[in-house]
Predict the 3D structure of the following.
Amino acid sequence: DRQGTRIAFSNRQDKLNAYFEQISLLSNRLGYVIGLDTEQKLSLGLCFTPDQKNAVEIRWSPLAAQEKWQVRWKYKNKI
């Protein structure tokens, strides 16, 4: 399957926040993410997975109080 939905919850500043994201793969190593949080703030991201253990995501939130960029790196250790 080349598409999926991710729902994540966080608790920042004593406030529960939920993120709803639609993920689509363009290839085995490249994909994009469109997300919306409980405050209806949009975020757009590109994901790159160079191998099965690492993932890099560059995300842009144009509607945040201060327009912001994020770079996320995830590592998955298979046991």
